[in-house]
Hints:
Blueprint: E1 3-8, E2 11-16, H1 17-22, H2 145-155, E3 188-192, E4 195-198, H3 199-203, E5 209-210, E6 215-217, H4 219-226, E7 241-242, E8 251-252, H5 254-259, E9 263-264, E10 270-271, E11 295-296, H6 300-310, E12 317-319, E13 322-326, E14 350-356, E15 364-374, E16 377-385, E17 392-396
Amino acid sequence: MKDIVFCSNNCFVLYSAAVQAKNSENKESIPSLPQSPMKERPPKAFHQYSNNISTLDVHCLPQLQEKVSPPSSPPIMFPPAFEAAKVEAKPDELKVTVKLKPRLKAIHSSLDDCRPPSKKWKGMKWKKWSIQIVIPKGSFKPPCEEEIDEFLKKLGTTLKPDPVPKDYRKCCFCHEEGDGLTDGPARLLNLDLDLWVHLNCALWSTEVYETQAGALINVELALRRGLQMKCMFCHKMGATSGCHRLRCTNIYHFTCAIKAQCMFFKDKTMLCPMHKPKGTHEQELSYFAVFRRVYVQRDEVRQIASIVQRGERDHTFRVGSLIFHAVGQLLPQQMQAFHSSKALFPVGYEASRLYWSMRYANRRCRYLCSIEEKDGLPLFVIKVVEQGHEDLVLTDTTPK
């Protein structure tokens, strides 16, 4: 059983030899092509073609008797083992002749031959870029940070800021120095002269509550109670956060309560590990950062009075931008002349303030204010200290 393929108008038609045997009776009406051996010249069929026929089927053209004609081109060998096939002709159809020309197709032996030839552009020059990496022999140890710092110091190309001084402020509750973590004890708040408390240490004390303005009430009361209470975790004094279970006496520092895995709730209550519910709870609070404005409510008048009563002070008292250096004093014979209906003028009073400069716009300078005695009357002295200028001293008999 052999097949043959004819190519007409770029369309391939495959005919089987079995069809030829089946339609052997129609040899008179449709002639078939004779079989040819492998090395014989293949026959060529000639047909006539007309474009004005609308019912023409190009794929099924009737084949006429072959006409011997001289070859117009060198013989082309078809693939072996193919035979001619028969095509049924349509009755009432005009006879046309079509000249079949086999399409030349080269058979390449490799894939490299099928690639199209590359174009050669004129005026183009290509350069080859090569990278060479040199690896030192032996073990290479990268320099550490200290060696890099020393090298940069020798070069003098860097400006290193001065080291930040250590924060020696200590919380009165947990006794830890410096500001704490944001999601922990948080920042330090001033309670009194050189007395500091962590925000969450004070906020989570049992007596303390927060007002709508952000003031913490009863911090001093919680501090006095904490001086007599011992923590269940670290066994140190100053514990103020107790378990809210009825008749439970377990009490902790805020930082120790976190370490002991106590459970905190959004309504500012806490349960110790013995009484906390198992698993997670809807109202459980796991993040303790406080970014709102919070301060300790205190009586500043009483605080200033306590500073005056102490006499010798090792600390500086500041209210806003006003810094008190010395409060001064008044003798009994000076009481009549060194006061007014609204204020007292103690001799030896000294304070400084940072305020806008009198010489330059958008710059600040230091004003040192003091009260002296002259001819039995107060003398108010203001000393202007500004960088790049000599100190300017202003005096008058009234504070205005």
